[in-house]
C-alpha cells in the first residue's frame, strides 16, 4: 500500500508494514491497528476526517467484520436498525406534523427553536457558553461545567447563536 502523500508510523518487515502501526492516507483518513505483509490484518480502526470511524477485523486487507460509527456517535446496524423508522424519536415532530415546505428549515424539535444567547450554543439540554464553559438549562439555571471532549463536541456540532442571525459573524 504505497500512495503519494501518505504516511506510516510503525514497524517494517522485508520492506512492508508489519505489526501495530498507523497509516494515514492522502485523504487524511487514518488506519490504526495491526498489519501483516503490508496490508491491514487483525484488529484496526479507520478514522475518517469527518469524525466517523470504522472499527473492524481485517484479513489480508479486507474487512471481515466491523462497526461503523457516524461522527455524532450513532452506530450503524445492518439488521433491525431503527434509525429513521416510525419509532425513531428524533423525527417525532415530522411524523406528527409532516415536513416543512422547501426552503423552511426546522432546526430543532421545538418550532420555533429556543433563541440562543449571543456567543452561546444550544446543546440540546440548554445553553452552553464556551467562554465560561458552563451549561445552563433553558431557564438559565446552572447544570454543569463542560470540559474536554464535551466542550469540543458542543463547539463542533451544536447550533450557534451567530448562525441564527444573517450577516452576523463570530470568531472561534
From TrEMBL:
Top-rank lineage group of the source organism: Eukaryota
Presence of the UniProt keyword Amino-acid biosynthesis in the record: no
InterPro entries referenced in this protein's UniProt entry, alphabetically: MORN (IPR003409), Morn5 (IPR042814)
GO cellular component: motile cilium
PANTHER family given in the database record: MORN REPEAT-CONTAINING PROTEIN 5
Localization per record: Cell projection, Cilium, Flagellum
Keywords assigned by UniProt, alphabetized: Cell projection, Cilium, Flagellum, Repeat
Protein's organism: Umbra pygmaea
Keyword Repeat among UniProt keywords: yes
Pfam families hit by this protein: MORN
Record's protein name: MORN repeat-containing protein 5
Amino acid at each position: 500500500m504505497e500512495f503519494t502523500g501518505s504516511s506510516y508510523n510503525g514497524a517494517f518487515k522485508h520492506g512492508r508494514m508489519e505489526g501495530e502501526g498507523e497509516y494515514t492516507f492522502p485523504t487524511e483518513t487514518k488506519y490504526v491497528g495491526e498489519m501483516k505483509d503490508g496490508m491491514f490484518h487483525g484488529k484496526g480502526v479507520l478514522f475518517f476526517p469527518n469524525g466517523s470511524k470504522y472499527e473492524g477485523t481485517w484479513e489480508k486487507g479486507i474487512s471481515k467484520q466491523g462497526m461503523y460509527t457516524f461522527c455524532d456517535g450513532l452506530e450503524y446496524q445492518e439488521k433491525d436498525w431503527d434509525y429513521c423508522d416510525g419509532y425513531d424519536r428524533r423525527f417525532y415532530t415530522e411524523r406528527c406534523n409532516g415536513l416543512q415546505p422547501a426552503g423552511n428549515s426546522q432546526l430543532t424539535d421545538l418550532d420555533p427553536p429556543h433563541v440562543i444567547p449571543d456567543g452561546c450554543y444550544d446543546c440540546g439540554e440548554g445553553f452552553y457558553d464556551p467562554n465560561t464553559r458552563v451549561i445552563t438549562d433553558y431557564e438559565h439555571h446552572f447544570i454543569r461545567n463542560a470540559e474536554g471532549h464535551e466542550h469540543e463536541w458542543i463547539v463542533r456540532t451544536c447550533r450557534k447563536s451567530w448562525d441564527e442571525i444573517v450577516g452576523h459573524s463570530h470568531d472561534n
